[in-house]
């Protein structure tokens, strides 16, 4: 946030000289950066608005938030130079940098990770009366893989392919899937989000759900094939009368490109982590996140400025996360 200096109406020669020098010198707190986020109605938009406000207040950056369609659109716009920073998910960042999956023809070698904001947890749920107890039981069953075109749908297909699970996919919107579970047209649905997910809570009250749980072997197989995913747990009691479930999660964070100045990347990263407790007070998903967790769960090179900050606070950054421009 730009600091404002106040002067009295009495100008001495020295004061005039100081004023002239200050006007001639570059502004200390006025580097503007934009960050593409998500639809304004989403919880992520609120969280990123909060973190942008916090970073702007404790750094020489003025961070402006832009409403977008989400991670996929952000990555494309980031590559075009239309935004300086972007909300991205771990699968998108990994694939964009390596030219895989959805980005097979759109490799972004200049993509750089800044930090992860919060984990997002995959939920795979079925009706309790369906008789489904394991993921293998989903074979051939009518199951919604998550909202059409959403990150949950993409992750579901990748994970199920890696594990050899083949449901009869019923593709529809989240609201339609919820209705279909309640009226018995499909046996279950999935979603990637921050628990408790309102749609699951609502369906569970009308037609009790069971959240499927992976075995340790399945987790190992899935994370080996898909390194941007990690083991996650949905605690007991997150949904009424449901036991703990072992699942997979991904991270939602902030990416830049190598065109963002090292200083801007450093200041953003520093201000963010030095104020993470304040962010957690207003945006619960960020609570408990640390710089160490962020680095440990990164699979693509860090921005040079972020790297500088992580090394400054004593984190041992793996060689594969060091970008070419910082070697």
TrEMBL record:
<keyword id="KW-0732">Signal</keyword>
<feature type="signal peptide">
    <location>
        <begin position="1"/>
        <end position="29"/>
    </location>
</feature>
<protein>
    <submittedName>
        <fullName>C4-dicarboxylate ABC transporter substrate-binding protein</fullName>
    </submittedName>
</protein>
<dbReference type="Pfam" id="PF16868">
    <property type="entry name" value="NMT1_3"/>
</dbReference>
<dbReference type="InterPro" id="IPR011852">
    <property type="entry name" value="TRAP_TAXI"/>
</dbReference>
């Amino acid at each position: 946030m730009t600091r404002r200096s106040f002067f009295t109406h009495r100008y001495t020669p020295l004061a005039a000289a100081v004023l002239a020098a200050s006007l001639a010198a570059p502004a200390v707190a006025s580097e503007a950066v934009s960050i593409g986020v998500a639809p304004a109605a989403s919880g992520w938009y609120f969280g990123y608005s909060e973190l942008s406000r916090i970073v702007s207040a404790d750094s020489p950056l003025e961070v402006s938030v832009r409403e977008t369609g989400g991670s996929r659109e952000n990555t494309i716009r980031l590559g075009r130079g239309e935004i300086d920073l972007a909300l991205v998910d771990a699968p998108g960042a990994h694939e964009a940098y390596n030219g895989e999956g959805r980005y097979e023809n759109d490799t972004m070698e200049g993509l750089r990770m800044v930090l992860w904001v919060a984990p997002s947890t995959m939920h795979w749920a079925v009706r309790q009366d369906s008789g489904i107890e394991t993921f293998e039981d989903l074979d051939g069953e009518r199951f919604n893989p998550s909202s059409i075109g959403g990150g949950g749908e993409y992750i579901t297909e990748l994970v199920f392919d890696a594990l050899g699970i083949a449901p009869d996919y019923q593709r529809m919107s989240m609201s339609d899937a919820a209705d279909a579970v309640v009226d018995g047209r499909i046996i279950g649905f999935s979603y990637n989000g921050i628990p408790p997910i309102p749609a699951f809570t609502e369906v569970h009250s009308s037609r009790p759900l069971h959240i499927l749980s992976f075995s340790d072997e399945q987790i190992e197989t899935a994370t080996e094939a898909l390194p941007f995913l990690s083991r996650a747990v949905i605690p007991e009691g997150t949904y009424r009368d449901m036991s703990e479930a072992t699942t997979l999660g991904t991270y939602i964070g902030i990416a830049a490109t190598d065109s963002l100045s090292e200083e801007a990347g450093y200041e953003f990263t520093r201000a963010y982590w030095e104020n993470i407790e304040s962010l957690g007070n207003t945006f619960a998903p960020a609570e408990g996140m640390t710089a160490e967790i962020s680095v440990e769960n990164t699979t693509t090179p860090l921005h040079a400025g972020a790297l500088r900050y992580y090394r400054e606070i004593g984190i041992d950054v793996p060689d594969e996360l060091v970008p070419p421009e910082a070697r």
